[in-house]
Amino acid sequence: MKLPVYLYGHPVLRKISQDVTPQYEGLKQLVADMFACMYESEGVGLAAPQIGRNDKIVVIDADPVSDSFPECAGRKFTLINPEIEILDGEKISRAEGCLSLPGLSENVPRVEHIMLRWVDENFQPHEEEISGFLARIVQHECDHLEGKLYIDHISPIRKQLIRGKLSNIMHGKIRCDYPVKYAPRR
Question: Which of its termini does the chain have fewer beta carbons within 10 Å around, N or C?
Fold first, then answer.
């Protein structure tokens, strides 16, 4: 099934997601559909709120950026109910984009070293120290589960400078090469 990506301004992107239990109906199909949506949209990560679901589910395949970031080579996983612990407080700014904010990219400060705990789609527990750009991808996607977007981490001045672009996304005045769902009209 082709899933649309929900764009900036849609209320689902600002809701805090709910934990997923082993009784979750259709989880494996949803995960497969999320990966298909992410690949079709040429992303490296996708969180359930981006497809209109307030569930703590993230899919990541960071391999496409491994030429620039070797720590991303072969890194593909499904994160259910992920938890992040910051291991290094120093923040580094790097450009980030988001499928829910097409056409935008901003420098976002994030830590480079985290401890990630999660269960996979079979509810097997995992724990791993993650560093570099892969840690950035994980933090970006997990922010979605808390109702946050990367633009929440930029300065008020930068946010003011992109206000027009954000308004265009919110009001459907953009073109996307992948299926999208705009914010409801008020």
Answer: C
Residue 96 is among the residues annotated as catalytic for this protein: no
Q: Distance between CA 86 and CA 91 in Å, rounded?
A: 11
- The span from the CA of 1 to the CA of 60, in Å, is 19
Identify residue 109 by its one-letter amino acid code. P
C-alpha distance from residue 162 to each of 38, 59, 100, 147, 156 (Å):
25, 28, 15, 20, 10
Give the predicted TM-score (pTM) of the model.
Answer: 0.95
- The closest of 44, 111, 114, 60 to 85, measured between CA atoms, is 114
Contact 29, 49 (CB under 8 A): no
User: Of 32, 9, 4, which is closest to residue 172 (Cα–Cα)?
Assistant: 9
The helix (H) or strand (E) run that includes residue 60 is: strand 57-61
Catalytic: which of 96, 106, 121, 141? 141
